[in-house]
């Protein structure tokens, strides 16, 4: 009986091992099948991205006449762009008083996505004759190469004598910074250390450029609502959200 019992235990162990092996085999087959299905999904996603890119390219072309018309109208409003920048919470935090004075000569901002869109974009800043630099246009470009590595390049600013704002950081006080020193907004043009983390470029391209009017009008909305401009938020459609009345 003892021998029979030992054989039974041995057979039980063998059966258990065989069951585990079969389960592992079935799981591996399922993983391979899931991987095949995932590959099909990835192919569809890749095709979708290509189709979306084609649609975006088409509508980028269609938008151009409207962008031009908007720019022509904006050019007739004094200090439009500096007002929009000052009213934007992220951009205004980067501006000191000298920056604001220089940006009063900014007449036009233009975002140009490269033809294939995915490889990058440039931002052009057009200036009237001013006491700070001789450039009519300042440009910063962002590139994404085939390996996905971002880089940037920009127009060298031709500062007039004694007017280089990037060298006067210690004497400029930012409105929204407590630092003793603050870099000038114009330092952004020569900052290429980490193009992939250039938040200002993304803010201008994705937030301000699509609808700069909402930021130009932001101060007027604050005055009408009695707000201080620091608590109101924009909803997904670019409209100001109403504050909820506190419950009594």
From TrEMBL:
Its main location: cytoplasm. GO terms for cellular component: cytoplasm; nucleus. Belongs to the nucleosome assembly protein (NAP) family. Residues 8-26, 158-167 have a biased composition (Basic and acidic residues). Residues 1-26, 144-179, 215-248 are annotated as: Disordered. GO terms for biological process: nucleosome assembly. Keywords: Cytoplasm, Nucleus. This is Protein SET. It comes from the Eukaryota. It is found in: Cytoplasm; Nucleus. Residues 220-248 have a biased composition (Acidic residues). InterPro entries: NAP-like_sf (IPR037231), NAP_family (IPR002164).
